[in-house]
Design goal:
There is one protein chain. The chain is mainly α. Helix content is 78%, strand content 0%. The longest helix has 40 residues, at 294-333. The radius of gyration is 25 Å and the shape is globular.
């Protein structure tokens, strides 16, 4: 019981930190990282532990599915070059640079272990960057590049990490030994992911009970990851290809009554997993920090600081160098994107470079290292230091930097939303042609109110649309207050209350 009380207390503290982060306009992982650091320094005796083999499946699989589900294949294709550069070359260079720095500072550390550390801290996390950037409405191209990078760079980093762990276990392997397995894993993952997606959709098509459908979504998510890892495929690539396929097909097959609560549950789970990751890493750090002698502690701090500087400098150098070449190419041959988007510039490149915050994937990768891995304590401590440092340095300055640059792209997503609304409204109204009944007129007014106006939560909202939503909110609020009063006065029971409450909830969501 004491362990449960302790876990609940830590969760409540983390939720309070996240609420404080939202109040000050910072990404919540920044405050979770600070809380994890505090947890490592507090005299807390805890028996909580996580088997290393569960870390990646527990933390990475659901987070990847949540991120991949919203990814746009079209936008990724339009920006494939900058995304590929960050996913492959930036991750590879960061891994090698970190390994070289660590080997220079800790010569007794094996190269495979140093490369493993580099792979752990190489992939940035888009959750933090999106939390900072989305409220500021940045150019769509910047968000696409950052989210596409974070979706795919985990595959590169975790494949390198797997090879490094294998090299440590096998006391050194050559590229020729692992190349066939590596290529087979990549190709097999891209085939197995969509295949398992079709099986999942076939299964879920037959389920209409909402709680059962949501539970099966989590079961299939973890199953896809575990099957991929069990047969030697890349869990990340399999999960990404699986999710993209499901995301393309499921909207036409999943009813709204299942989809709406599903989104809320997944958002909650991703938030809870971020909290758990920082709790577990903080609890692991405490015995590590407490067992170090002052001399060794100083060496670990020096290594962590050097690695933090390395990952920041490598990303800045790569992104600004690529930007200079790209701008030269566009000046010479012209800029002809397939659809309107922000033209690459030094400012946009600096925003992308400065958004290299590390997060839950780096923490999960560090937790996933075997207990007997060489210099594991150093790897775990350094990984957390890089996560904390990048979240604080980048997370608290990225928003002001974007506001200072004032980058604008004419809101291409807004234009597409308006076009989609016009077309969907026309199609919906066409089904009512010739019907002049009161019910048909009511449906026409409701369709026009919800599909006929501009976005109501942005600066471009027109007055009539805003007035409609204000009246709608006031009316449903008044109805809800009457319903609450009727239950409080015992005019109605809970069964009737919840039925009417559900109808009002649907009205609010509309």
């Amino acid at each position: 019981m004491h362990e449960l009380e302790q876990l609940i207390g830590l969760f409540v503290a983390a939720v309070a930190l996240a609420a404080l982060a939202r109040r000050v306009g910072a990404p919540y992982p920044v405050f979770l990282a600070i809380g994890g650091a505090g947890l490592a320094l507090l005299p807390i005796q805890s028996t909580f532990s996580l088997p290393p083999e569960l870390a990646l499946a527990l933390f990475v699989a659901p987070v990847l599915l949540d991120a991949a589900f919203d990814s746009s294949l079209r936008d990724l294709r339009d920006n494939w070059l900058p995304v590929t550069g960050l996913v492959v070359f930036a991750v590879g260079l960061t891994t090698l640079a970190v390994a070289a720095v660590v080997r220079a500072l800790v010569p007794e550390m094996p190269w495979a272990a140093a490369i493993a550390l580099g792979a752990v801290v190489a992939p940035p996390d888009a959750v933090s960057a999106s939390a900072v950037l989305r409220p500021l409405r940045p150019p769509h191209r910047i968000l696409t590049v950052l989210e596409g990078e974070s979706l795919l760079n985990d595959a590169t980093a975790l494949l390198i990490l797997r090879l490094a762990i294998t090299a440590v276990a096998a006391d050194g392997v050559t590229f020729g030994d692992v190349a066939p397995t590596f290529l087979l894993g990549v190709v097999g993952s891209l085939v197995a992911g969509p295949a398992m997606g079709w099986v999942t959709l076939w299964l879920l098509d037959r389920v209409r009970h909402v709680p059962t459908a949501i539970i099966l979504q989590f079961v299939t998510t973890f199953s896809v990851w575990m099957i991929a890892e069990r047969v030697g495929l890349s869990g990340v690539l399999t999960m990404v290809s699986y999710t993209i396929m499901v995301a393309r097909v499921s909207p036409g097959r999943t009813p709204a009554r299942v989809r709406i609560p599903t989104y809320a549950v997944w958002e909650t789970v991703v938030f809870a997993l971020n909290i758990l990751a920082f709790i577990f890493i903080g609890l692991q750090l405490r015995p590590i920090v407490g067992s170090l002698s002052p001399n060794v502690r100083g060496q670990y701090v020096a290594v962590a600081a050097a690695v933090l500087v390395t990952v920041i400098v490598v990303r800045l150098t790569w992104q600004l160098s690529v930007s200079a070449v790209t701008q030269w190419w566009h000046r010479r041959f012209g800029f002809t994107p397939p659809r309107p988007m922000l033209r690459p510039s030094f400012k946009s490149a600096l925003i992308v470079a400065w958004a290299g915050m590390r997060g839950i994937v780096s923490l999960a990768a560090a937790l996933a290292l075997p207990a007997a891995f060489p210099h594991r304590d150093l790897v775990v401590l350094t990984a957390f230091a890089v996560v904390l440092g990048t979240l604080v340095i980048h997370g608290l300055t990225l928003g002001p930097l974007l506001r200072c640059f004032d980058l604008r792209d004419g809101d291409p997503v807004g234009r597409e939303v308006r076009t989609a609304r016009d077309r969907t409204l026309a199609a919906a109204l066409a089904t009512l042609d010739g019907d002049q009944s009161d019910s048909a007129m009511s449906v026409r007014r409701e369709l026009a109110a919800h599909l006929g106006g501009d976005e109501n939560d942005g600066p471009d909202a027109d007055g009539e649309s805003a007035r409609h939503h204000d009246l709608h909110a006031r009316a449903t609020h008044a109805a809800r207050q009457v319903l609450l009063t009727m239950r409080a006065d015992e005019e109605i029971g809970d069964d009737a209350f919840h039925r009417v409450e559900e109808q009002l909830d649907w009205l609010d969501m509309r």
